[in-house]
Amino acid sequence: MTDLSDQKAAAAAVPVGPQKMTPSEAFVETLAANGVTDMFGIMGSAFMDPMDIFAPAGIRLIPVVHEQGAGHMADGYARVSGRHGVVIGQNGPGISNCVTAIAAAYWAHTPVVIITPETGTMSMGLGGFQEANQLPMFEEFTKYQGHVTHPARMAEYTGRCFDRAMSEMGPTQLNIPRDYFYGEIKAEIPKPNRLDRGAGGEQSLNDAAELLAKAKFPVIISGGGVVMGDAIDECKALAERLGAPVVNSYLHNDSFPASHPLWCGPLGYQGSKAAMKLIAQADVVVALGSRLGPFGTLPQHGMDYWPKNAKIIQIDADNKMLGLVKKISVGICGDAKAAAKAILARLDGKALDCDATRDERYATVQAEKAAWEEELTNWTHEKDAYSLDMIEEQKKEPGNYLHPRQV
Fold this sequence. Notes:
With about 400 residues, the chain is α/β, with parallel strands linked by helices. It contains 15 helices and 14 strands.
């Protein structure tokens, strides 16, 4: 991955003010202004003109054997770096190969920009080389679709796609008729426009702190927003102040360290029984950076564990997620890191109802974790009649077999 200093140097070299240039130059200069140093894709004739100036602009095109791989690589790159992931491909079938990867990035809230050069304007509708209607392909899985309507608007649309990917927290599509890369235009390269996300509204933060001050058994759900917002330390600090067990939201086991004594494992599909039994006891739940998706809150191991009478404080940078899946008591539209710090500041110096039961709750947490660990250890083979029957059948076959739960 390119060093951050290289990214800053590339952005600093971007021309300032209106200037004459080709649309390809406007496109590449806008990429550089947004700190793009790496892209993923397969080279094709649709973007050959800008391709010639990628390298001089400090941009590396990383080739792949299949465009779906390029999309997944851009997704992973963005998650690891905190920057945009960029994927580009040949028009038509090359672009359509990326749909699955962009869908995955959409549900992961990853800022991937997919650049889709398309058939030239003078041959649209004539069934020319790999012609396809490329905007509807990605409509369901993008937060914004920019279609360049004139070469002079190349920098404008390119910059907007990069801005929206960050502000909307998801993939955007930049669709460019291939003949619009050529000619001469007068363009000004837009500066990146990034939202400064705050902690949330004062009233909602106050309400959250008031609920937590009166909580007897608070539990924190640490979600993907904690990872994206670099808020793990703030989540730890809030958990330690409350003495609250922390459970991970589905597929976000990296949102809280398993080495921490208050960590209890993930909720949802194939999750931790300890996490489920503990959240079932909660009277106040803090969903920090989590949309509380159905797959991460569904019954599991025969337990419908979601606390029906608990007060739910949901913190998410996307206001549309607040209260969407689960009924909530307080919704905070804010950054996970800033919101956790703001709530912690409001609890500072206060006597909390849960302080009196800190040791008792900690013992409960450790007991549930130990019980779940023991159960896992004892899962050496299946116990239902059908599986036992299959195990006996396997004994008659040559070779050694692992029982399903050992696998």
